[in-house]
Write a structure and sequence with these properties.
- By secondary structure, this protein is an alpha/beta fold.
- It has a single domain, classed as Rossmann fold, CATH 3.40.50.
- The chain has nine helices and twelve strands.
- The strands form three sheets. The protein has an eight-stranded mixed β-sheet with strand order 1-4-3-2-5-6-7-11, sandwiched between helices. The protein has a two-stranded parallel ribbon with strand order 8-10.
- The longest helix is centred in the middle third of the chain and has 21 residues.
- One of its GO terms (molecular function) is isomerase activity.
- Pfam families: NAD_binding_10 (PF13460).
- It comes from Nocardioides dokdonensis FR1436.
Length: 321
């Protein structure tokens, strides 16, 4: 593995998941109103955790029993210190994808370690960060990528590079167990879902977005399976180990890929264009045809439950509906 300004805080509390809240793990989730954050909150509640949901706008945290809303910027040092006090784990899902590089660097590379350092100072056991498989070099001919694969260079694009640098910055924060979870394309319903909503909208509205290389690999994971791994790691259901093939290294910084079964861009594009009633435009040329290897996650006991056909049917049903 490779190296791995604030606002006043408002609080809205739902009834706890268990009357004996002291027995339940307390997990902080940033970006709790986002696609991955909301799904992670639900998975944590299912596991009996008490969730401190950090959001930027009041009233946007998931309205679930055991979810307590905290409003503010997660990288505000005062909010960070307050929200991690007494917590057992943190799951951070925030990265301003699509923003300019300076903003992505400020919030991701500079901001995320603020929360990690606060967690370490508070004695939090685990810090689980949602990274991305985009940090790997997946140029044509790169082949399969596992956690030891080469990372993108500085010309790899704003999102991959700033996510890479955020991972490296967290690798330098000591005093707690850090886990860098690296999903590829995330399939799952939601207004902000890139692959179920935003990308199909572009394909519908813009002919240039219908161009694709059918042979290119489409590495993916379903939102529910990703959230399950995040929740299991955060609550300690995934035990620590001195061998990263078996579990996150206690006190270390461990990357773990999470991906579903092999697929191609043809698989995804044909489903989307078919549901929208438009024709794909197939392009030739060099393309990455490897896979994102999730052997490490499987060694930790994670098992994807959503098949490719089920995930793509969900995409199509959402577009037709």
């Amino acid at each position: 593995m490779r190296a791995c300004l604030g606002r006043m805080t408002e609080t809205r509390t739902s009834p706890p998941a268990s009357p004996s809240s002291g027995a339940a793990p307390v997990v902080v989730v940033t970006g709790a109103n986002g696609l991955v954050g909301a799904a992670t909150c639900a998975a944590l509640v299912e596991r009996g955790a008490h969730v401190r949901a950090v959001v930027r706008r009041s009233g946007t945290a998931p309205g679930l029993p055991g979810v307590e809303e905290h409003v503010g910027e997660f990288h505000d040092p005062d909010l960070a210190s307050r929200v991690v006090d007494g917590a057992s784990a943190v799951v951070t899902t925030v990265h301003p994808m699509g923003s300019d590089r300076e903003t992505q660097h400020r919030i991701g590379v500079e901001g995320t370690p603020v929360l990690a350092r606060a967690a370490a100072a508070a004695g939090v056991d685990r810090f689980v960060h949602v990274s991305t498989a985009a940090v790997y070099d997946r140029s044509p001919g790169a082949g399969d990528v596992d956690e030891s694969a080469a990372l993108v260079g500085d010309d790899g694009g704003d999102y991959p590079v700033t996510k890479r640098d955020t991972d490296a910055a967290l690798g330098r924060v000591e005093g707690l167990t850090r886990v860098l979870v690296r999903p590829p394309a995330i399939l799952g319903q939601g207004e902000s879902s890139v692959w179920n909503t935003l990308r199909p909208q572009a394909i519908r509205d813009d002919e240039s977005a219908r161009h694709a290389n059918p042979a290119q690999s489409f590495a993916w994971v379903h939102l529910d399976d990703l959230a399950a791994l995040l929740a299991d790691v955060a609550t300690g259901r995934t035990a620590a180990s001195d061998d990263p093939a078996l579990g996150p290294v206690a006190g270390g910084c461990t990357a773990v890929n999470v991906a579903g079964e092999p697929a191609t861009v043809r698989d995804y594009t044909e489903v989307v264009t078919g549901a929208l009633g438009v024709e794909p435009v197939w392009d030739d040329g060099p393309a990455w045809t490897g896979q994102v290897r999730a052997d490490r996650a499987l060694g930790w006991g994670w098992r994807p439950r959503v098949s490719l056909s089920e995930a793509l049917d969900e995409v199509a049903d959402g577009l037709r509906g």
